[in-house]
Amino acid sequence: MKIKRIILFILLIIWMATVFFLSNETSDESSGTSGKTIRAIINLIPSIRNMETTEKEEIVANLQPIARKLAHFTLYTIGGIILFLNFRLYGLSNNKKLTFSIVAGSLYAMTDEIHQMFTPRKESGN
Question: Average per-residue pLDDT in the chain?
Answer without folding.
Answer: 89
